[in-house]
Every structure is written in structure tokens, then in C-alpha cells.
Amino acid sequence: MRKVTAGLFSSVDGVVEDPFLWQFDSFDAELGAGMGEMMGRIDAGILGRVGYQQWAQYWPNAEADADFGGFINPLPKFVASRTLTGELEWQNSRLIDRPLEDFVADLKNGDGGDIGVFSSISLVRQLLFAGLLDSLMLIVHPVIAGSGRRLFNDGDPLTRLELQSSQQTSKGNMILEYGIRQG
Hints:
Elements: E1 4-11, H1 29-41, E2 42-48, H2 49-58, H3 66-72, E3 77-80, E4 93-95, H4 100-108, E5 114-118, H5 121-129, E6 135-141, E7 161-168, E8 174-180
Parallel strand pairs: 1-5, 1-6, 2-3, 2-5, 3-4
Antiparallel strand pairs: 6-8, 7-8
């Protein structure tokens, strides 16, 4: 069975929204290597509408980051949206045509590598609390963002995580990979 995995940049105070505002000065080689390792296991991706629209405008023509662009552009991408219709323009992208949870459960049962959830806090939350997320990587940067959307909210259901690996990088980032306990 394939694993569904998500990786999010986080501030120490739990902000995961718009990490480009606060993570740039703590990015280091170890963090890049950890992300490269995660990307090496992924052969399909799931995005929400907003993330898809932002990334589809940037990545097909991006030359600044050939490593990630070389990974994400050819990757099969499945887009969860209630408002997008028709064919999607970004190569190897298609709309999910049924309920997200059913689609992901079927995708997990197929052949292939890991399935990555990209650029969507809402999708990560939905798949986590539906019991479909197998691995959550939090990359905690040594910064207090102060404001912005957090991954977890008051009132979320009790969910047990198991630390699978941890690494501190030279610039003080913590790469924490958690497995999700089911049941």
C-alpha cells in the first residue's frame, strides 16, 4: 500500500501559512537534503485549488529552482477543487472527480511510491483527521512568526503521533517526521 505524506514548514509558534515570509534565512544544506530525500519517495501529488493556481503560474516557467521545478513539473498532480472545471493547463495535472477521501483511499491502494500532499493546510488537515495521512513532516524553523494560519486548532480531535525521525540542521531547523497512529 502506498503512503500519503505531507511536509510543512512551521515556525516555533506553529504558523504554517506563507513560510516564504519567515523561513528564507534559515534554509540550509541539511534541510535541502531532507526535502530531497522526501521528494525521492514521492511519485504523485495532491494539491488544493489555491495551491494549484499559485504553483501553476510559477513552476512551469521557474528557472530559479531547477531541483524542485524538475521534480514538480513532470509529477502526476491531482487537484481537489469544487470550483475548477475542465482540463487543467499545468502538465500532468487533473481534477479529482469524486470525494477526496474516496479518491485518496483508491490511490493509496494502487501501485507506486508515496503520494505527497502539497501547498494546502486544509487538505493536510482533512486527510489527517480522516485517517488517510500516513506521515507528517514538520520542518520547524527557529523563528516566531507571530501571526498566520496554524495547522492545528482548538477543538481538533485527539490524534496520536509517533516520532519516526528527527534531525537538527546547522541553522537550527528541526526536521520532525511523524507517523500517524490509526485507532
